[in-house]
Amino acid sequence: NFAGLDLLEEIDRLRKDRNAVILAHYYQDPQIQDLADFVGDSLDLSKKAAETDADVIAFCGVRFMAETAKILSPEKTVVLPDMDAGCSLEDSCPPDAFRRFREEHPDHIALTYINCSAEVKALSDIIVTSSSVEKILNQLPQDQKIIFAPDRHLGGYFSRKLGRDMLLWPGACIVHEAFSEKELLKLKAEHPGAPVAAHPECPPHILDHADHVGSTSSILDYVLGLEAETIIVATEPHIIHQMEKAAPQKTFIGAPGADGNCNCNMCPFMAMNTLEKLYICLRDLEPRIEIPEDVRVGAKKSLDRMLEMAS
Ligand code: 13P
Ligand code: SF4
């Protein structure tokens, strides 16, 4: 309840009045996931944003995701409940430093993870997400020199998996870096045989213990296809909401941080979006994503290459 309003009802009314679509990432609060028109991983959400015929996209995720929606659908109004919902990977890759890095390696193409600013996308050749990177890398000639930014763990994982040497930008996600190998091993010992599903943003000492490594939607598909009764999930724990909805008879345990529980692995940026702020952004159509046209056009080129190569 917000100032005497039934927020869920108001959000629903505004969604219709504004001809708005509410897109949400799996790391959002369960209430937001449940009221969204579509919940997905970064690739699915960008496809939805590119296809929708709504006038307004209310993006419940972090800023780079909402920017991606605006880059692909510039004629739409894109609102983000909290404009401060950033991402540590984006922060780790400032556009000027990235430009200089590219200039130092003129014979490399830049394959860039979607978790970056619109400016960095405009400085890149091809954007990838965790669910499209393998397919895209497999289409590039083996001798192609590649810069991979900004996530060194994700880049390192696919570099090892596919036997491709890539020049890795030294960025990381603060959420996935917080998992503790020692606590994970303790948890595995307490639940013998429980499979571990992990996101490739995890560091290698966590990925080494994983039975499956993939994007949020691939983790979801994997765990729902398993016979196992208990499954350990090494990614942001709000995704467990979808798992519990789809398989209430199973037990899903968030992989622990150093304190032995999964609270330190909640994404502080995703948590900035609340029902109240979603209501306000649908009501006021603010805060709104705006991107300078030259940056948008540059960023669209590298995003379009991803959408072509991933389809
Ligand atoms: P996915 O594309 O796998 O949903 O990942 C998004 C993200 O930010 C993971 O931290
Ligand atoms: Fe960025 Fe990590 Fe949060 Fe994903 S979980 S949005 S990579 S800080």
TrEMBL record:
- Annotated iminosuccinate binding lies at 25, 42, 113-115, 130, 199-201, 216
Q: Which SUPFAM superfamilies does the protein's record reference? A: NadA-like
Where in or outside the cell?
Cytoplasm
Which Pfam family is an annotated match for this chain, by its short name?
NadA
Name the Enzyme Commission number(s) assigned to this protein: 2.5.1.72
User: What UniProt keywords apply to this chain's record, in alphabetical order?
Assistant: 4Fe-4S, Cytoplasm, Iron, Iron-sulfur, Metal-binding, Pyridine nucleotide biosynthesis, Transferase
Q: What class of enzyme is it?
A: transferase
UniProt GO MF annotations: 4 iron, 4 sulfur cluster binding; metal ion binding; quinolinate synthetase A activity
Cofactor: binding details:
Binds 1 [4Fe-4S] cluster per subunit.
Residues binding [4Fe-4S] cluster are 87, 173, 267
Matches recorded under InterPro entries? NadA, NadA_sf, Quinolinate_synth_type2
Could you say which cofactors this protein requires? [4Fe-4S] cluster
Which BP terms from GO are recorded?
'de novo' NAD+ biosynthetic process from L-aspartate
Reaction catalyzed: iminosuccinate + dihydroxyacetone phosphate = quinolinate + phosphate + 2 H2O + H(+)
Query: Which pathway is recorded for this entry?
Result: Cofactor biosynthesis; NAD(+) biosynthesis; quinolinate from iminoaspartate: step 1/1
Q: Which NCBIfam families match?
A: nadA, PRK09375.1-2
- What family does the Swiss-Prot or TrEMBL record give for this protein? Belongs to the quinolinate synthase family. Type 2 subfamily.
Q: What does this gene product do?
A: Catalyzes the condensation of iminoaspartate with dihydroxyacetone phosphate to form quinolinate.
Q: Fetch the HAMAP family from UniProt.
A: NadA_type2
Q: What is this protein called?
A: Quinolinate synthase
What is the scientific name of the source organism? Pacificimonas flava
